[in-house]
Amino acid sequence: MSEATTVDRRMLEALVCPVTHGVLSFDADRMELVSKAAKLAFPVRDGIPIMLVSEAREID
Prior knowledge:
CATH class: Mainly Beta
Helix content: 10-25%
Structural class: mainly beta
């Protein structure tokens, strides 16, 4: 991860899934916030979490 894409871990810990209001886990390799309950992965672009369901990727 380059300096341009650093992520504030404290900010990520404060975020919840917009669908379930549950816990998110951060996948640093894919730069995504993952909601296992909603089966969605929200992208983090340029250090900014994109918490829109329309931008999320469905996961198994």
